[in-house]
Design a protein that fits this description.
- The protein has 345 residues and is an alpha+beta fold.
- It contains eleven helices and 14 strands.
- Helices cover 37% and strands 19% of the residues.
- The strands form five sheets. It has a four-stranded antiparallel sheet with strand order 2-3-5-8.
- A hairpin with a 2-residue loop joins strand 2 and strand 3.
- The longest helix is centred in the last third of the chain and has 18 residues.
- It starts with 32 loop residues before the first strand and ends with a helix.
């Protein structure tokens, strides 16, 4: 029997790989990023069971039909694979490197970066996610990269397990992204996510965070009707059941403040309000440092040759744990450390 005097456990998943160990590791230099189109529209299923229904969505002129394979629709948790691929490609793109639709990565790295377990179940779940991502087909007129695409495509075009260990665990994975996702990457139509996104247990929590990140952003608040929020979440529940599910998330968030970046509430008229928790800070909880002296960029270029200094500045602002006493010195120290880590790797 639980002790009522003890605080309720956090709704967040445990942080399996604390960030303190990440800074010198290449795979964590890539800040989590997701494409804006699938953040705004309900591409992924909220169900934890195989979802084989055909979903049709229309809002403000955007029409989407999402068809599952026999394995079911790709889920919100399957999206982790795409986030990982997008993050890796955006890091390479911002460093001036050539990128392609084919992304090759170590399965173990992806599991750690997305806070998944690295036991056998983690690998089997990754394999199932790849199958659902490849099997889910989308027909839409969403615009990405300045192109309006009227055709049917998969979230990924293909996936291949390049190498497996003797016990059957995959080691390297090769994923070919769809034109739709790759167009978004090349056009930088992506947004940074808080790392705690991967610690959110419930698919609905992840989905409402994505919507808040897309629509509220750095603004003080975003208001949306419950019916529109349900539509954007892609929930198949009745409005009454959706209200109940959302209210449960809201109550937990009021106790634990576990939804990253935004507090969530609902008023008596079924208007859901997302409020930026720290309007003096940026997305992901990063500190907003004042603008840098223009001369500092030349010094930064010398410290980190070949790397886009404006990309480094964005990464530095994402990483800042607290307001720096000397922003210029702090930024240059970050550039020096980044360059050293690249030479070591």
């Amino acid at each position: 029997m639980s002790d009522p005097a003890q605080p309720a456990p956090s709704p967040l998943l445990p942080d399996r790989y604390p960030q303190g160990d990440f800074f010198v590791c290449d795979i964590f230099d890539a800040v989590p990023k997701a494409d804006m189109a699938s953040m705004e529209h309900p591409i992924f299923s909220l169900s934890t069971k195989p979802d084989t229904r055909i979903r049709e969505y229309e809002h403000n002129g955007i029409k989407i039909v999402i068809k599952p394979s026999v394995d079911g629709l790709a889920t919100v948790h399957d999206r982790d694979v795409l986030i990982y691929c997008i993050s890796q490609l955006m890091t390479a793109l911002n460093e001036g490197k050539d990128v392609s639709q084919v992304v090759r990565f170590r399965a173990h790295d992806m599991l750690i970066a997305t806070n998944r377990n690295t036991a056998g179940t983690g690998y089997s779940q990754l394999k199932a996610a790849l199958e659902r991502l490849a099997g889910t087909r989308i027909s839409t007129n969403i615009v990405t990269g300045g192109q309006e695409i009227f055709r049917t495509f998969g979230l990924i075009e293909s996936a291949e397990i390049v190498r497996e260990t003797r016990d059957g665990r995959m080691q390297e994975v090769e994923v070919k992204l769809s034109d739709w996702v790759f167009n978004a990457i090349r056009s930088k139509e992506v947004l940074t996510l808080h790392r705690d996104y991967f610690r959110l247990r419930k698919p609905l929590e992840r989905r409402i965070y994505e919507l808040a990140r897309k629509h509220c952003g750095a603004q003080r608040e975003w208001r949306v009707g419950l019916d529109i929020l349900q539509k954007k979440c892609g929930s198949g529940s009745t409005i009454r059941e959706f209200r109940r599910l959302l209210t449960t998330v809201i109550k937990e968030d009021q106790t634990h403040q576990h939804i990253p970046d935004y507090a969530v509430s609902i008023d008596d008229e079924d208007v859901v309000i997302f409020t930026n928790r720290q309007p003096g800070r940026g997305i992901g909880g990063q500190t907003i440092a004042p603008p840098l002296d223009p001369e500092v960029y030349e010094i930064a270029r010398a410290l980190a040759p070949g790397i886009d200094v404006h990309f480094l500045e964005r990464e530095w602002r994402d990483w800042l744990p607290e307001p720096p006493h000397s922003p210029e010195a702090a930024f240059l120290g970050f550039c020096r450390k980044w360059s050293q880590n690249r030479k070591v790797s």
